[in-house]
Design brief:
de novo design (two linked rop proteins), 15 helices, about 30% helix, about 20% strand, disordered N terminus, binds phenylalanine
């Protein structure tokens, strides 16, 4: 009697445990992409001896792969096109030089610990357990990153006379108006099909508390939004509550489109973290463990399949020579906009999947200021001010409070619907700074006079990256399975594009799949 696949798996499971059955299943190709193992690998010591894995890219995903595989005894080498590790994880400090395809910028920040800018990833939500796990394992010190600040500003060019309004008032007033509307509907019996008599009382009580309504269930303003005048508090007497913002202006502004509920998004929920001293503490910690495996300045020119595995042809810029490396497996983390143009033996579905991934033309601009005017003049400590102008947002540092100077993000463009990402990318670096200063001045009068120097990063123009992160939330299936002996990783192979967590989970999936294949053979 022949053995069915299920009988076989059952016997594997009985003898070797569920883990072995799982590895066998995935080696047999029985697990779909969604079930690919993203759990942190924990392979027996030495189980990878004699197997060589070449990893393309020394970003978070490539270094995670190398770290986990080498712990199990795999022989790993990492080809990194640039001269640094970290990929899109980039922190800049005074004295750094950063390059784009057609420009170079010298970072002119003062050399002090709190004067740096995270030009790539800058926040880690509490539930990104895999990247936080490495922070813990490597002793990367964390502090809280402030995403949501009620004291920061909302700005719309067309509304409120083009004046910024403060977050606490926008939130309080819109909430109050919504509660009032709903209370009216309840009081006019419009919701009687949904609510019993008891429910109605409870809903009205809830709305009164939720929205800060008066006893007649009307919203007439609330001290939650602050008091009139510059001082926020008047001191000995409570002062007059701010008049509510005009409901029509609030509705016609873009604030509610996502900015107002930004921290409701799962990946933007408090608590969020940042490494103390710069996000690059993470790649530095990885590099301390796998740096000896990295070949810098090695630009991949061909990705080939061989009967035994893979053959990677690369340009070694340091030796000015073309080299080739053969290995049992490859893990490819090269971003799709770059990968699509590298000659390869990929199957046509794989090539089509790679070519289908569009990257967001993200741009960030960091400004060093002569004083922390947001703290001194507005009591803004960290967080984000939003605008409908191209710069999209201004981020205030959640570090270095009350020091003399600071570095703010004067722009973080992450959406290209009206073309602003490419518009800023196409400017020269000095033009970008000028444009961002002019836009920021609509939110902070006298802005340009506060700024001492700036630096920009237009990710579409960054060599070996060519973009910020994939636009689509779900990676194509073809990138979640190997093409021959070539596995894909990087955030682009996950449902978490634009997050280091995605980079780590993709690395875990690739490493687990390779290990399953090695142990099953
Ligand atoms: N993680 C990045 C951020 O928080 C980029 C990103 C933005 C990714 C929005 C997905 C969605 O800004």
């Amino acid at each position: 009697m022949g053995m069915t696949k299920r009988d076989f798996l059952r016997s594997v499971g009985a003898v070797a445990g569920v883990g072995a059955a799982y590895h066998t299943m995935s080696a047999l190709g029985l697990l779909g992409p969604a079930e690919a193992q993203t759990a942190a690998p924990d392979f027996p010591l030495g189980s990878g001896y004699g197997k060589h894995v070449v990893i393309l890219g020394a970003g978070i995903s490539g270094m995670t792969s190398a770290y986990e595989l080498s712990k199990a005894g795999y022989d790993c080498s990492i080809l990194e096109a640039s001269n640094r590790s970290g990929g899109r994880n980039l922190t800049v400090r005074g004295g750094d030089v950063i390059r784009e395809v057609d420009s170079r910028q010298w970072v002119d920040f003062d050399r002090e610990d709190h004067l740096y800018a995270n030009m790539g990833p800058a926040r880690i939500p509490y539930h990104h357990r895999a990247i936080l796990g490495y922070c813990k394992e490597f002793g990367v010190e964390l502090e809280v990153f402030t995403n949501d600040n009620r004291g920061a500003l909302f700005h719309n060019t067309e509304r409120f006379g083009g004046q910024s309004v403060v977050g606490r008032q926008v939130m309080t007033d819109l909430r109050g108006y919504i509660a009032e509307l709903l209370a009216k509907a309840v009081n006019r019996n419009a919701l009687d099909d949904e609510l019993t008599g008891d429910d109605k009382e409870r809903v009205l009580a809830m709305l009164t508390s939720f929205g800060g309504l008066d006893p007649d269930h009307l919203y007439i303003g609330s001290n939650r939004g602050g008091y009139q005048g510059e001082q926020i508090h008047t001191g000995l007497a409570p002062g007059d509550v701010n008049d509510p913002l005009d409901f029509g202006e609030l509705l016609n502004s873009d604030f509610w489109q996502y900015k107002l509920h930004f921290s409701q998004f799962l990946n933007q929920n408090p608590t969020l973290f940042q490494p103390v001293g710069g996000m690059d503490a993470i790649p530095k910690a990885f590099q301390a463990r796998v740096g000896h495996l990295i070949h810098f300045g090695s630009i991949v020119e061909e990705i080939r399949k061989t009967p035994r595995g893979v053959r990677i042809v690369y340009r070694d810029q340091r030796r000015n020579a073309t080299e080739a490396v053969e290995a049992d497996f490859a893990i490819c983390t090269i971003p799709a906009p770059v990968l699509k143009d590298i000659p390869s033996d990929f199957a046509s579905e794989t090539q089509a999947a790679i070519a289908s991934i569009e990257f967001v033309p993200a741009v960030k601009i960091g400004f060093q200021t002569r004083r922390r005017f947001w703290e001194e003049d507005h009591a803004i400590y960290g967080g984000i001010s939003w605008t409908d102008q191209d710069i999209t947002q201004i981020w205030y540092p959640a570090y270095g409070y009350h020091r003399q100077k600071g570095v703010i993000m004067g722009a973080y463009i992450w959406d290209d619907r009206p073309g602003q990402g490419l518009r800023y990318s196409q400017m020269t670096p000095p033009e970008r700074l000028k444009a961002a200063m002019a836009e920021g001045a609509h939110m902070h009068p006298g802005y340009a006079d506060e700024i001492e120097s700036g630096v920009s990063r237009a990710w579409p123009k960054v060599p070996f990256q060519k973009g910020g992160w994939p636009e689509n939330y779900q990676a194509p299936a073809a990138l979640q399975q190997p093409d021959g002996a070539i596995y894909f990783a990087g955030d682009q192979a996950t449902a978490l594009p634009g997050w280091q967590e995605g980079a780590v989970l993709a690395a875990h999936a690739a490493v687990n799949a390779i290990h399953a294949r090695v142990t099953a053979s």
